[in-house]
């Protein structure tokens, strides 16, 4: 699949990262001559974040091509995501031009944060294939995307857009009907208005307001949201009890949500000065890295509990594992098997400037998984309750390894019986074949349904025996 992107700013660059790192080819149009640099920086940050987020085997990265025009970006692709400036006239122009060049079956989505899709369909060829696909920054980490149709949008468009987003690990929230601002931004705008009033009235600084969120409700919201939080606050009696206690307070004149403070120069100066103080000299890229690192940690914690965005991450990781191709059987089984190639990622480097030893084990684990796939342990086999578990590892580090080095693993089967399998892995630098590390490992075949060792089935053992017999004449590895 290939997608076309119209716009390469913060959101467009985020979409590029989401699709590319999900294995999808991208054609991107942006008239800004700095777009390649800006998108490249977003991609660099996304690779760093995704490398910290998951140990799942990521798909091969898609190819990025910069298009010369909206028509060039849309021609021949299955899906087009528009992320231009929040101006109706400009978005209409981009979508109209792209729709004239696109295949009739191509789906279009706009990243608009509040414009109704009906307004954007007006000049398009095939307006029924446009919907809103409103993401959240950073697009490559936050899974929510609001999907909203316009007056002329057909249901198939919404279904296909949602399926496209799910395929790259997102959680599409399909709106029941068209509304300005959709769902999330209407909630955020209410909070934003009140925050501006608190600053304008000198009740709080921007940092104090952010503290109120990040030390309290913001932490809770990641797991529980709004309504479930308040249901819990109602105790055993639930939501009715909560509303009986706190519902009357909604009539009190606490907030100023229907008013907007005048965005005077005085207020803008106050916001800018306080925001600069809060940033404490950190650049936008530095702040993005802090944000991404914290989001990665939150997502990982939520995944552990199968809650919210963590459940979406776990589902995507399963999809990545399922999509791993079975390695082709080498023509010459009489040599150690080259089943896994990798790149030493920058985020694997420790404070000494070297790749941390835990990452060697990760690479060797990926090599073991490739061996298991070769002998027939696929998703169907795992679902039936069989697997090999690592029970012993002897790791030797031979040479230091640096970030970005390309490496590969050579695997030799040392022996097996119905319940056990022994293998030796040698990690080599691909540029000069230097030996970097070795690992001798023993794996135990397990019946995962009961959690005990079990004999592997005869068909699998026959495939293991074929490799073991071919490797038997090889000299003992050291």
Summarize the structure.
The chain has 478 residues and is α/β, with parallel strands linked by helices.
Could you outline the blueprint of secondary structure elements for this entry?
Layout: E1 2-6, H1 10-21, E2 25-29, H2 35-53, E3 64-66, H3 70-74, E4 79-82, H4 88-101, E5 107-110, H5 117-120, E6 130-134, E7 144-149, H6 155-167, E8 171-174, H7 184-200, H8 206-224, H9 227-233, H10 239-246, H11 265-279, H12 284-305, H13 308-323, E9 337-343, H14 357-374, H15 379-383, E10 386-397, E11 406-416, E12 420-429, E13 435-447, E14 452-453, H16 458-471
Helix pairs in contact: 1-2, 2-12, 12-13
Task: Note the quaternary state here.
Answer: single chain
> Spatial order of the strands in the main sheet?
3-2-1-4-5-6-7-8
Structural Rg:
27 Å
**End-to-end gap:** 45 Å
Number of helices: 16
CATH topology of the largest domain: Rossmann fold
- Proportion in β-strands: 15-25%
The pLDDT mean sits at 93
CATH class of the largest domain: Alpha Beta
Number of strands: 14
What is the succession of H and E elements? EHEHEHEHEHEEHEHHHHHHHEHHEEEEEH
Q: Main beta sheet, described?
A: 8 strands, mixed
Features:
3 domains; 478 residues; alpha/beta; N-(1-d-carboxylethyl)-l-norvaline Dehydrogenase, domain 2; six-stranded antiparallel beta sheet; Thiol Ester Dehydrase, Chain A; eight-stranded mixed beta sheet; single chain; Rossmann fold
